[in-house]
Every structure is written in C-alpha cells, then in structure tokens.
Amino acid sequence: MQKVSIIGFDGALASAITGIIDLFRLAGVTWARIHGEFPEPRFTTRLLTRNGDPCRCINGITLLSDGSWEELDTETTENADLVIVPTIGAPIDQVLMANPDLIIWLSQFSAPNRNSISQVQLASNCTGAFLLAEAGLLNNREATTHWGFSNSFRQRYPQVNLIPDKLVTVDGHIACAGGGMAWWDLGVHLIERYAGAQVARELAKAFVIDAGRNSQAPYSGLQTKRYHSDSVILTLQDWLDSHYGEAISLQSLAAFSGLTTRSLIRRFKLATGETPTGYLQSIRIEAARRHLENSRLAVEEVTRLVGYEDVSSFSRLFRKQTGLAPGAYRSRFGR
Questions:
Q1: In the predicted model, what is the mean pLDDT of residues 263-289?
Q2: Buried (b) or exposed (e) across 314-329, using 16+ Cβ within 10 A?
Q3: Where's the HTH araC/xylS-type domain (predicted)?
Q4: Structural domains in the chain, sorted by start
C-alpha cells in the first residue's frame, strides 16, 4: 500500500489534516462496505510533527502524532511516502517564523525521487503552499493557494507562477490545492493518480464529493484588489464601483484620475495586479454574480445592467472568469 504522511504543525487547520487522512484511509474501503464487498485499503497514513510532539490546531484541538518528520526517509525506497502539507490556519507569518526547521526539511524535495519520478511526491493544501514557497520549492513552477491570499503570495514569491483560479495544480512532482476545503479535491486527485480513476470515482461518490470542480474562481471576490495605498487608484476604484454599468473607455478613466493613459495602466497594475480594463471587467462580473445569486432577472437583463450589450460575449467572459456559464452559476449559488 502507498504510504501517505501529513505534516502537522501548531496553527494548522484541523479539518485539512483529519479530512484528508479520512479520504486516504477509506479509499477502497467505504465503497466496498456500502456494497457489501470486502474492503481493500489502498493507503496507510500517519501524522508527522517536529520531534513527534502533539499538534495543536487553530481550532484548539490537539492531535497526537505518529512520529517525527525528521525521521522520514524520502530518498531510498521505491515506495517513498507521499507528503502532504495542510492549510495554515493561524497567521501565515507567525507559522513561517515558528517553523524554520520544517522549511529547511521541505527544501529536500527540490528534486523528484529518482525511483518515483512520474508521481506527485509532495502536495500542499490552501495556504500550506506558503511553506513550500518559503522552502524555494515552487520557484518557476505552477502553483495555487487560497484566492484570498493570492496577492500576498505573489508579492512574497514573485518567482512562482501562481494561478489562483485553479483548484489543483500539478507541476512535476509537486501538487497544490486552492482554498480551505480543497483538500477534498486534492485528495481525490492524488488517489486517482496512485490508485486509479475507478477508486477515486467510487470514493467521491461515497463521500458525496463534487469531483468535477476545477476552479475556485466562483468563490473569489474583489476585496483583495484594494489592499494597497495608492490614493489615486483607490478613488478611481470607488468611482468604478458606482459607474461600472456605463460606457467607459481607458481614456475617460485616465482623464478622471488626472493621469496619462500610460501612467494609469502602470500605477493601476502595480496597485491591484490588473489593468484598468481587466479590473472593470471583474467589477462587472462581480455585479452580475450578485444579480444571478439574488434575483430572477433574465441573463439578457443582467448583461445590460452590468454594462454589456452582447449576451454571447458576456456569457463567454463570465465563464472565463468564474468557470461557470451564467445559468450554471445561478443554479449553484442562487438563493
């Protein structure tokens, strides 16, 4: 059976540890029990901490460990452990500062194990990606993390190719999953890689998991785009909040802000990570999401209210930004 080691540390999110342990331990088990068949466990799991000490999670629960990560052999065995770093639940800087030894230990995963080069050998969930990035493991790799911390992550680790819309990324032997409960998706994805698609599908059905998710864009918002100190851009953002339904050009935005078009683009992107046009599209999509969640207005009417004329173009843009067509979005999130 494949061995899976989850790394525990104080301030971790308990559900990201216990939940993913449940998934791996019950792969090949729960489905068989439901159908009166003989269970065939596919994975063994263990929780590893520094010195084998208990792990006190952010919700106050203390988890007993099965040993120390310092003793884990990641190089010599063909069946080397799959290592998973869970979500950081406590303040991220605090956890990074408290775990220099763990960060140094993780850095050994910079190259894949020669005996299992085709497999994912290290994975993180949500903000656990900060620990991988701090160890230098994600430089020049695709990665994802919780959408709400994506700006902070980009500023701190500019060499990482962060794709926050993705729910799961795999680049070489390292996988990352997005926000909080994405350990579901990460677990099912890794189980499929190690135990096959049938085992993963059966597990998803047994746990009533929507295995078709591939984006966290439907859950993200615009609030992170305001975490900056450029007063001119903040004033422009406030204006756009009230006028997004109007016909707006880049030239009119430059005139309103008192900047040249070139300076506006440069300062807006520096402050928010987006161009003014891209940000306007995001505001309009956010407004459309609110209409779809809270009203029964036809998609055509929603399109007009948020500043677009062509329904087909709007629908393509909406799907690109949220991962869902307008009708599918309303079905999932409408009240």
A1: 88
A2: bbebbeebbbbebeeb
A3: 234-332
A4: 2-217 (3.40.50.880), 223-333 (1.10.10.60)
Query: How buried is residue 251: exposed, middle or buried, by Cβ count under 10 Å (0-12/13-18/19+)?
Result: exposed
Residues 14, 16: Cα–Cα separation, whole Å: 5
147 in Cβ contact with 220 (< 8 Å): yes
CA distance 96 to 178: 19
CB atoms within 10 A of CB 34: 11
Residues for the chain: how many in total? 335
pLDDT above 70 coverage of the chain, percent: 90
Note the pLDDT tens digit of each residue in 178-237. 877 788 888 888 988 888 888 888 888 888 776 555 556 555 555 556 656 788 998 998
What is residue 127's DSSP assignment?
Answer: G
